[in-house]
Design brief:
Helix 1 (about 5-35) runs antiparallel to helix 4 (about 55-70) and helix 1 packs across helix 6. About 45% of the residues lie in helices and about 20% in strands. The protein is globular, with a radius of gyration of 22 Å. The relative contact order is 0.12. Helix 11 (about 360-370) links the parallel strand 11 and strand 12. With about 400 residues, it is of the alpha/beta class. It has helices spanning about 5-35, 35-40, 45-50, 55-70, 80-90, 95-115, 120-145, 230-240, 275-290, 310-315, 360-370, 390-395; strands at about 155-160, 165-175, 190-195, 200-205, 215-220, 245-250, 265-270, 295-300, 320-330, 335-340, 355, 380-385.
Length: about 400
């Protein structure tokens, strides 16, 4: 891992770099997109760039990775690396792009920190960068080999269903008639679209059907920005894509999958559009005849806003031992609860393995309650839609 000399230098300079990391990443992206405007147009999420979310995620992940190296020199933060590598692979990131990132990132470090970046400091942080980059390249290579492709391929829309006022489900199949590869419940695909200004933007959407279906299904929530711009891809898909149109899709990626669950009690907790991977998981559990206890928890604004609600209930009802708890902020029906998700009155079986998806505050609250009920932190897994600010924070 990190050499002793570099570890000492990184440990000494980490506070200064950490304090300046947001300014460094701001300069990095400005430099990168000036030199390579096609990356912003055709690869990076312009919405996350505009909101600053991607900058914060990159800053946090670099600082967290460096901190892990100096605190645990004999361990690699595989959870962080796997999460990032899956996202990179879904976008088709290539090994030759890493030197480009290195060039502009280290130029930004030198600009922001000035004379503090001595040759020794530059060498130490270069070692950190390439430890992280080479680990990601190796994981991404394996993911590409397993998926059989780095490219997005043409898929034709064969169905469109309005789930709620703001959520639509698309059913797609390969435009060339090729067989549909299986996926692991909980995974997502990247969807590429050409926008009105000519940009090719890519977003990730969880697959909602059962693994093994002859089509792929994914649901898209229209992102209403409020203080930030509306989601340009989600609005494009809602407004313009109909049956017969063609979209570009990647192979499935994502590490929120049902591993090591035989005979184990499970808890699937979601809020809002975070329901999508949970529906796929429930479909897979029902198909596999999972007979250990399963607890389903979901929170939403109202029953009318609960996307895939019928599927959510139906798959839960097919399980041998399943308790479903739905929370609605308004218009709660008999048998459901009013208010935000609260696990205090919900039994959680010893040895439960938990899967969470939804807004970050929701997942933080649920995770804290689960730990308070005796669930081991290592048994709590989650998916964040968009840049992973939770993972980057190191918490």
């Amino acid at each position: 891992m990190l050499s002793e000399q570099s570890a000492a230098t990184v440990r000494a300079t980490l506070p200064a770099v950490g304090a300046a990391i947001e300014r460094i990443t701001d300069r990095f992206y400005a430099r990168l997109f000036t030199a390579h405007p096609e990356l912003l147009r055709d690869l990076f999420n312009r919405g996350n760039q505009a909101s600053g979310a991607q900058k914060s995620a990159l800053a946090g992940s670099i600082a967290a990775f460096a901190g892990h190296l100096v605190e645990h020199p004999d361990e690699r933060p595989d959870v962080m690396l796997s999460r990032i590598a899956h996202k990179h692979a879904s976008l088709g990131v290539l090994p030759e792009q890493y030197p480009v990132v290195h060039e502009h990132l280290f130029a930004a470090i030198a600009e922001v920190l000035g004379d503090a970046v001595t040759a020794e400091v530059a060498e130490a942080w270069t070692e950190v960068y390439w430890l992280m980059a080479n680990a990601l390249i190796a994981i991404e290579k394996r993911l590409y080999e397993e998926s059989g492709s780095k490219e997005l391929h043409a898929w034709q829309v064969v169905g469109r269903e309005e789930e709620t006022a703001d959520v639509v489900t698309f059913r797609v199949r390969p435009a060339d008639g090729a067989p549909v590869r299986e996926f692991q419940a909980g995974q997502y695909v990247s969807v590429g679209v050409k926008l009105a200004d000519g940009a090719r933007q890519i977003r990730q959407y969880s697959l909602t059907g059962a693994p093994g279906e002859s089509v792929r299904r994914f649901s898209v929530k229209r992102v209403r920005g409020g203080a930030t711009p509306d989601g340009e891809v989600s609005h494009h898909l809602h407004a313009n894509v109909r049956v017969g149109d063609v979209l570009e899709l990647s192979e499935p990626y994502g590490d929120l999958v049902l591993d090591d669950i035989a005979g184990r009690p499970l808890l699937l907790a979601s809020a809002g559009i975070g329901v999508t991977p949970m529906v796929a998981m429930l479909a897979a559990l029902a198909a596999d005849g999972h007979d250990a206890p399963v607890t389903v928890v979901h929170g939403d604004r109202s029953p009318a806003d609960h996307a895939l609600r019928d599927d959510h209930r139906a798959y839960a009802g097919k399980l041998a031992d399943c308790a479903a708890h739905f929370f609605y902020e308004r218009d709660a029906e008999p048998g459901t609860r009013t208010g935000l998700v609260d696990l205090s009155g919900i039994p959680v079986t010893s040895g439960t393995r938990a899967y969470l998806c939804g807004p970050l505050p929701f997942m933080r609250a649920v995770r804290a309650q689960l730990i308070g009920k005796g669930v081991a932190p290592a048994d709590i897994h989650y998916e964040v839609f968009g840049p992973d600010l939770w993972l980057a924070s190191g918490n």
